[in-house]
Amino acid sequence: MAGNHGKGSNSALAFVVGGLLVAVAGLGYMAYTGQAPFGSDEPSVTIQLPDVDVNKDG
């Protein structure tokens, strides 16, 4: 029993790393497919310029 020191910490670390990997993969899939609250709306850009008369006779 004295030789099993640290085995629980390795399992906990593997569990945390696995959870992070699943979370990153899920977020990446949602971002790639557009099935997420972020990035699902298309941006709307409107540019209004003043009318300028360039054919002035003067």
Structure, described:
The protein has 58 residues and is an all-alpha fold. It has one helix and no strands. It has one helix at residues 7-33. The longest helix is centred in the middle third of the chain and has 27 residues, at 7-33.
A few lines on this structure:
Keywords: Membrane, Transmembrane, Transmembrane helix. The chain is mainly α and 58 residues long.
Which helices and strands occur, and which strands form pairs?
Elements: H1 7-33
Radius of gyration: 29 Å
Q: What string gives the helices and strands in order?
A: H
Number of helices: 1
Category from helices, strands and their pairing: mainly alpha
Helical proportion, percent range:
40-55%
Number of strands: 0
Terminal residue distance: 102 Å
User: What fraction strand?
Assistant: under 5%
What is the 3D shape? Answer: rod-shaped
Uncertain residue ranges: none
The main pleated sheet reads as: none
Query: What is the average of the pLDDT values?
Result: 79
